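Question (not urgent): is this output format expected?
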Amino acid sequence: MKVYVVGYSSCDGHSLDSIHTTYKGAFKAWNKIRISLLDEAKDSLKRHNNEDEMYKRIIKRLSCKDPKKIDNGPHETPYIREYELKE
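Got this back:
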């Protein structure tokens, strides 16, 4: 049986959000995290008068909708990890 672990990683470590039995459910949870992080970056950019290059890079990276291709390191990067459970 496979399970899909959803969370995000950063230079400070990992944060586990949820565990799913289907990839579809994991993808929905992953996308919620991605959008939340994206919204935070957009708000931060606004607070910096749209002039902070770091937040512009974060926004560009978090706009990727493919969990296998997204890379926002060293900042928070959402992930889906697949594990095979043994009986």
